[in-house]
């Protein structure tokens, strides 16, 4: 059913096609969210292509949807997000659209964490340098004494 200039939303009734193994709705003008019924009911689905439409919202999770790759959804769906797309995806579930990617942290929080990180890294380098210097002095002193003892 690709390249047919279908418009509107994907009908939830497609979820009643429980034996369907392949569904291609790409290159149409479909809008809205992917119906949750598709993810829940299409347990025989092995291949799905919803790319190059104007879909939005979170990709529903479900038994067969978890096996699909990003190519099933990518391309032409700028408002679509969630796993398996790299946009707003974590390993447990898709994040709601209104949550900023940085978790809502302000720039002051970012500066604070950056300063703490730099202090820790600088301290690590400082301790490492001091340890190397102490070992070098100890090494030079030890072998100088050893040479003089001969």
Q: What does it look like?
A:
Its main location: membrane. It is a single-pass membrane protein; Single-pass type I membrane protein. The chain crosses the membrane at residues 112-140. Keywords: Cell membrane, Glycoprotein, Leucine-rich repeat, Membrane, Receptor, Repeat, Transmembrane, Transmembrane helix. The protein is of the alpha/beta class. The protein is built from two helices and six strands; from the N terminus they run βββαβββα. It has helices at 36-41, 107-149, and strands at 7-9, 22-24, 29-32, 47-49, 54-58, 79-81. The radius of gyration is 29 Å and the shape is elongated. The termini are far apart. 20% of the residues are buried.
The overall number of domains is 2
At the first level of CATH, what is the class of the largest domain?
Answer: Alpha Beta
Strand arrangement in the largest pleated sheet: 1-3-5-6
Main β-sheet: number of strands, strand sense, barrel status? 4 strands, parallel
Report the β-strand fraction as a percent range.
5-15%
Number of helical elements: 2
DSSP helix fraction? 25-40%
What is the fold named in CATH at topology level of the largest domain? Leucine-rich repeat, LRR (right-handed beta-alpha superhelix)
Give me the CATH superfamily of the largest domain.
Answer: Ribonuclease Inhibitor
The CATH architecture of the largest domain would be Alpha-Beta Horseshoe
Number of strands: 6
